[in-house]
Amino acid sequence: MEKTVRACTLEDESEAEIVCSILKEQDIPYILKRMEDSAYDGLYVSQGPWGFIEAPVGYVDSIVQILKDVKESRTDGESPNSAFSTNGKSRVIKVIEIGVPVALLVATVILLISYINLRRTFDRYVGRQSVSWSWVAAEKAMVGKLRTTGQVRYKDYDRNYNNIYEESNIYSIDGKRVTTYYDKNENHVNESFVEKEINGNLISEGEDKNENGNYEHLTVYYSPTEYVEYIEKNDDGRADEAIVHNDGKERVIDLRAFLFNGQP
Ligand SMILES: [Ca+2]
Ligand SMILES: [Ca+2]
Ligand SMILES: [Ca+2]
Ligand SMILES: [Ca+2]
Asked: Residue 175's domain spans which residues?
């Protein structure tokens, strides 16, 4: 490049970007110099021009005109270069400035919704939703309802008003009674239970007559006419006999003999 002279000064980096892009487009030779590159070591930048353009003397007039056009267009809010927006910041920067917070906000909302849904699912299946209890005189029962929906989850009956519940019920999330424990002799120990599916079919029944925690009589249902009774004879917690009911027919199996001595 032939000898260059200072053609113009530049106010800021964005002005430099625009002017330089136009100079490149028009094949005008130039050298961009920043003040911070110079001996002023950056101190000058905040007070004076950002930098300047040097070019062969023959191009100075064109460069001055280009800078003038750029300044006017920036004042008018029109960009001479489509790559740059009106305030001189590149669109990429604008997209980052607006796009990143929006993306973060959207991500936060999505995470929040996911969390709420997960929490709901968790509450639904684990039953962690808090329950509020109140005495319902008409039912003679303490009724436990979910605080969130008012759905009945528990109903404990004290029909003789002695503060001992002779019957305790658990309801499914769909409002069906699924499990009932009985303490008919009102000694605070349950001696039997009934478990049902939400459609009302029996799943199992148990009886612990001596109230020691071992069920001497446990019935498991496969259908109303197909069920197995497990009988506990010596109260050691292990069933000794199975009575298989199959459409009105009964078959008694000695479990120990059947399972361990190979006898049918
Ligand atoms: Ca009672
Ligand atoms: Ca009891
Ligand atoms: Ca027992
Ligand atoms: Ca036994």
From this structure: 131-260
